[in-house]
C-alpha cells in the first residue's frame, strides 16, 4: 500500500525538520511544497497499523512538524493510449457560448 503524507512545518525549523523527515521508515520520496503544506512524503507500507505507527512515532514528534494530512493512494490511473483523442481543446465558440 502507498500513501501521501502532507506535512505542515514551522517556518523556523523547516530545514531541520526536512533533514529528519528523510530518515522516515518506508519513505519512497520526500518533496518540498509551496502552499498550506511545506512537504509531502511518499510512503509505502504493509498495512494501516504500520502507517499509523510511522505517522505517530516518526513524523509527528519531530521538531517543527505542526500538522500532517495523510491520503491513501487507491490505484494508479491507467496510461492513456491516445491522449490527443482525450484532450481535445475546445474554444468558446465551439461550445456554443457567444
How would you describe the overall organization of this protein?
With 98 residues, the protein is of the alpha+beta class. The protein has one domain: Alpha-Beta Plaits, CATH 3.30.70. It contains three helices and four strands; from the N terminus they run βαββαβα. Strands 2-3-1-4 form a four-stranded antiparallel beta sheet. A hairpin with a 6-residue loop joins strand 2 and strand 3. The longest helix has 12 residues. The radius of gyration is 19 Å and the shape is globular. The termini are far apart. The relative contact order is 0.24.
Total helices: the number is 3
Cα-atom radius of gyration: 19 Å
Structural class given helices, strands, pairing? alpha+beta
Mean pLDDT: 86
Assign the CATH superfamily. Answer: Lrp/AsnC effector binding domain/regulation of amino acid metabolism (RAM) domain
The SSE order reads: EHEEHEH
As residue ranges, the low-confidence spans are none
Distance between the termini: 48 Å
Strand content range: 25-35%
Order of the strands making up the biggest sheet: 2-3-1-4
Return the CATH class.
Alpha Beta
Please give the CATH architecture: 2-Layer Sandwich
**Strand count:** 4
Helix percent band: 10-25%
What name does CATH use for the topology?
A: Alpha-Beta Plaits
Q: What sort of overall outline do the alpha carbons produce when their principal axes are compared?
A: globular
Structural domain count: 1
Biggest beta-sheet profile? 4 strands, antiparallel
Amino acid at each position: 500500500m502507498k500513501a501521501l503524507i502532507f506535512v505542515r512545518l514551522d517556518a523556523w525549523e523547516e530545514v531541520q525538520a526536512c533533514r529528519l523527515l528523510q530518515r522516515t521508515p518506508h519513505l519512497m520520496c520526500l518533496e518540498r511544497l509551496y502552499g498550506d503544506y511545506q512537504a509531502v512524503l511518499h510512503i509505502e507500507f504493509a498495512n494501516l497499523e504500520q502507517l499509523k505507527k510511522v505517522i505517530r512515532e516518526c513524523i509527528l514528534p519531530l521538531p517543527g512538524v505542526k500538522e500532517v494530512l495523510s491520503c491513501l493512494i487507491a490505484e494508479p490511473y491507467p496510461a492513456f493510449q491516445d491522449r490527443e483523442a482525450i484532450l481535445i481543446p475546445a474554444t468558446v465558440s465551439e461550445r456554443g457560448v457567444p
